[in-house]
Amino acid sequence: MSLRLRLFFTHTIVIMIAFIVLGAALAILMIDYQQRLMLRELSFVATTVVRSLRLADITDNTDKVLERLAIIGQNQRFQVALLDSNGVIQPDHGFAADAAVAGHKLDLSHKVSVLGEVSATTTNNREQLAASVFTDGQRRRWTFVAIAIRPTLASTSWLIIARPFLSGPVVSLQDESLALPFIEAGGVALILAAVLAALVARSIAGPIQKVAAAANAIKRGQYDQRAAISGPVEVRQLADDFNQMAARVQTAQKTEHDFVANVSHELKTPLTSIKGFAQAIEDGTVSDEASIKSAARIINDEADRLTRLVVGLLDSARLEAGDIKMSMHPIQINAIINSSLAKFAPRADNSEIQLIANLTDQSSIQADGDRMAQVVTNLLDNAIKHTLRGGKVSVESRMMPASKTCAAGIEFSVIDTGKGIPAEDLPRIFERFYQVDKARVQSDGTSLSGAGLGLAICKQIIDAHHGTITAQSVVGIGTRINVWLPASQPV
Asked: Does 192 reside within a domain?
């Protein structure tokens, strides 16, 4: 059974049960209300009859009382009879002529509740009224009200007015003025309950089914599928979370595909070179000493390139998996920058590139010194590599006070005057293996493109330090890489 049908039947059943319980409660209240009305009516009739007997001054004449009661007893709505002073129904008059009724002793102790049902205009404090229910010999139940005919005498007789006992749903069903509206209201309520259940089931199950359909599509490899965001708040949140998950899955699949393609490409070139020159040496194609040394140098350079690639891949994978733990201790970013600039000074001089440092005094921060040196080295390497002869590479550092958007920290920047990065490539430069231009070469013919891991590793290291790394670039002017690190690391 589908979720929509389950929700429909569940809501319908719950509403029907609630309606049945409400109907039962209303029926009980209706029975009680009608019982009270009957007691009020019987009390009024009993009081009126007794007063008429007293006005006629025949309360001491039993025969005349019986004659009067015989006339009253012709009313089919209620029955009359006499009780002796002990509450026993006297035979041979009224409905007491029935042997199943005569001789029953009635309980006349329930007086207070009956007085509460009779208004002051109907009776007075001297009247003695009682009410109860009794079952005759034929197991018929009667509701009665009894009133003392001669309340001033020590030994008195009682008059009772009785009607069949009202019980069960027969009360409401017998009264067509109540039963028909009740049945009609119940039918309308059930129809509305079914419509409401269908709407609720549709509003909940519909969006969930769309999410399920999108999930099945992703399972079949259609990673661009997204679920429509609709329905209740919780379902909309589910669809939104699903779409974010689907986007991550799609990105992961694309990254995995690019990773395999890029690794294959990066490994293929040096391996081809190593194999080719090794084969040339083995075949004797390269025979003179200078050629052999040149081939050996190329093989060694390509082996170093493979080593750097493998080390970079391992570092990137371990950083992404969180296997590399940062060794946090107080460090001075300026000291790391100065040390890195000193190492790159000869290379910059050979390329006629000016290195400029603009460092402000700053406090120590908690960071992994070796990893931060790796970040600075990668950024300087990229900046020098992509800056033409006669250009400049600048490094700046500054303290950043706390603000509404970020905590206090230290920011340093590496700025070059290179070719710049196109706007469409800028958002992806921190992805593994992403290279803006694989065909760019230096003036000596050496390729500028590397494995495309340097900036990706920098971002992973900065992320591990709870910092941020961003890039700004204008084509033809240069590129600026900004790194922000918090003054204190989260616990």
From this structure: no
**Cβ atoms 147, 129 nearer than 8 A:** yes
Pairwise pLDDT comparison (445 vs 224), residue with the higher score: 224
- Say yes or no: 389 and 457 in one domain: yes
Number of residues assigned to the chain: 491
Token pair 């974010």 in the structure block, residue: 244
Of 427, 423, 411, 237, nearest to 337 by C-alpha is 411
Q: Is residue 210 part of a domain?
A: no
- Rounded to whole angstroms, what are the CA distances from 303 to 90, 275, 299, 382? 127, 11, 6, 21
Spell out a b/e string for 227-243, using b for 16 or more CB atoms within 10 Å of the CB, else e: bebebeeebeebbeebb
Report the candidate in 171, 133, 172, 127 with the shortest Cα–Cα distance to residue 151.
127
Contact 435, 428 (CB under 8 A): no
Count of domains observed in the chain: 4
pLDDT for 127 equals 64
d(CA 203, CA 234): 12
Residue 16 shares a structural domain with residue 160: yes
The three-class DSSP label of residue 359 is strand
Where would I find the beta strands (DSSP E) of 55-187? 79-83, 129-135, 141-148, 158-164
pLDDT for 353 beyond 80: yes
Supply the range of the domain harboring residue 170: 3-174
- The answer to whether residues 244 and 366 belong to one domain is no
Those residues with Cβ within 8 angstroms of residue 32's Cβ, 6 or more apart along the chain or in another chain = none
Q: What's the pLDDT band for 173 if we cut at 50, 70, 90? A: very low
More confident position, 222 or 70: 222
| Euclidean distance between CA atoms 164 and 174, whole angstroms | 13
